[in-house]
Amino acid sequence: MIFFFPPLHFSVMEDSQPLLRSEEPRTNGHYRWSTHTLDSKAVEDFRRRLKYFFMNPCEKYRARGRKPWKLMLQILKIAITTIQLVSFGLSNEMMVTFKDENLVTFRHLFLKGFKDHRQESYSLYTKADVYDHIHYIINTYINLQNLTVANLAYERVDGEYTPLSVCREFYRNSSIDPGTDTFDIDPHIDKDCISIHPMQSVDNCSLAAHFNFSLDFKSLLSVNIYLTLKTINLQTVRHHELPDCYDFHIMIMFDNRAHSGKIKVYVENDARIYECRDWNVEGASGKNDYLLLWFDSVVILACLTSLILCTRSVINGIQLQFEFNIFFHAYYNKIVPWSDRMEFVNGWYILIIVSDMLTIAGSALKIGIQTKFLTNYDVCSILLGTATMLVWVGVIRYLGFFKKYNILILTLRAALPNVIRFCCCAAMIYLGYCFCGWIVLGPYHDKFRTLDRVTECLFSLINGDDMYATFLNLRDKSYMVWLFSRLYLYSFISLFIYMVLSLFIALITDTYETIKHHQQDKVPVSQLQAFIAECRDQPESGRYQTDEELTSCCLSPRCCLP
């Protein structure tokens, strides 16, 4: 697109008189535009247009009387998205709590002698204990209705109960004799299962004889027991929500893959949530469900409107940036630096656009969950939670209209590039310590057992958390490991707490002092700001009550001549 300024009216000029405006030398590193050079109405209109573009909503209202619709819409969004998140959060909390409590119930029901306060994993050490626990699980499942206080029932498919399955995994062929230090093993894994129906009684003898189910612990890898139970989450009735029906697919695993004499026992629960087939709540009219659906629709509509308005503003800013670049090249024969060009792209609008997209997607998922077509609670909570966080972070933009609050925003924006570069350098040292700690200390310390645990442990140490416990747990290890752990921990803590963190804070402090100095001196810091600063018209002056298309830009000085 080509932009042209209106013809400039100026008298016949000598060849020696410059057509372009000149720029005086910098004063304290800042630009000042000379006053004796060429000026025109088109330049002043374009300068006024730029100043209007960078005004805050209140100043734009005083300048042209335009109501700040985006500002009012963002304030409305803060309220409705927060209410929506709180409503969904309470529902999600009930669902997660119900699933967790049922998992604890299953552990107490099916693991013999299970205690909540036990810190170590549930483990078995003798053959008799393994057989006894498998028999205990089967009998508990068969007599579940007479044992549990929960609303649990067996699953039925085509009128038949879904059986409990006991599966064993083992090496296909193996001959192991530790006494003679010999073994012959086929690494291929075989799996066979037996099925037991709820109404079938089983004891230890019939398990081994009738089902031909015996365990060769030398080749055994694991024993997995699969069962399915159904229940209804009735606690949502108190909150005027329809109860959901649940299918719990439970797996109890006896893990012998280490062949260390310790068989670890795990209980895993996979829940499937769906709408109950036939339901009736006395006195319920479904009005609350319709209100929630209507409210979610309002949220989607508000975010869609905000998305359109902010996208339009971003596009207008990009177009104005191109005009300013062409204008500067035509009038001053200069190339606008990227730092000035990026000022036209409002990062807050980008943040709002991302927030709106996440809110629309999360609200659509929430509607699907409320109508029982979807059960993606985790995905929905991530979308809505992130969107609400971005909405509240966007409030900082409006605090920036006040000078005392604006210094924080300017400091964050100015320090961000240096902070990213600094963090990249520090991350190299951090990752080196992570890999070293994982390899050397992992076998001896739970906090260094996996790479993700190492990163979490070292980050806690940087913040001064749990230092003594980390040192203490390595006290009784071998002397070589103990000595290395001391050198490792002391060097890491000294390097990151006393040097890296101090440099990080100094980096931000230096940026803060620089921004504060510029605000006190009230001098522009870029060519764009210096150009706009020459416009002395106040928002209330009435000079902005003009057509926005009065000013445009030309590709060469020739088109600006009459």
How is the main sheet built? 7 strands, antiparallel
Number of strands: 13
Rounded to an integer, what's the Rg over CA atoms?
Answer: 35 Å
Shape: flat
Q: Quote the beta fraction.
A: 5-15%
Structural class: alpha+beta
Number of domains: 3
Q: Determine the mean pLDDT.
A: 80
String of helices and strands: EEHHHEHHEEEEEEEHEEEHHHHHHHHHH
**Termini gap:** 22 Å
InterPro entries: MCLN_ECD, Mucolipin, PKD1_2_channel
Subcellular location: Cell membrane; Endosome membrane
Catalytic activity: Ca(2+)(in) = Ca(2+)(out)
Transmembrane segments: 290-310, 348-369, 381-399, 419-441, 487-508
What does this structure look like?
The chain is of the alpha+beta class and 562 residues long. The chain has three domains: 66-98 and 288-391; 111-281, no CATH class; 410-529. Helix content is 52%, strand content 14%. The strands form four sheets. Strands 3, 4, 7, 10, 11, 12 and 13 form a seven-stranded antiparallel β-sheet that branches. The longest helix has 46 residues, at 287-332. It is flat and about 100 Å long.
SSE diagram, text form:
Blueprint lengths: L22 E5 L2 E4 L7 H13 L3 H8 L4 H42 L12 E2 L2 H16 L1 H4 L5 E2 L1 E2 L2 E2 L2 E8 L2 E4 L4 E4 L3 E8 L7 H6 L10 E14 L10 E12 L7 E13 L11 H46 L5 H4 L5 H24 L6 H17 L1 H5 L3 H39 L9 H12 L4 H6 L6 H43 L5 H7 L29
Antiparallel strand pairs: 1-2, 3-13, 4-11, 5-6, 7-10, 7-11, 8-9, 11-12, 12-13
Membrane topology: Multi-pass membrane protein
GO molecular function, one term: NAADP-sensitive calcium-release channel activity
Protein name: Mucolipin 3a
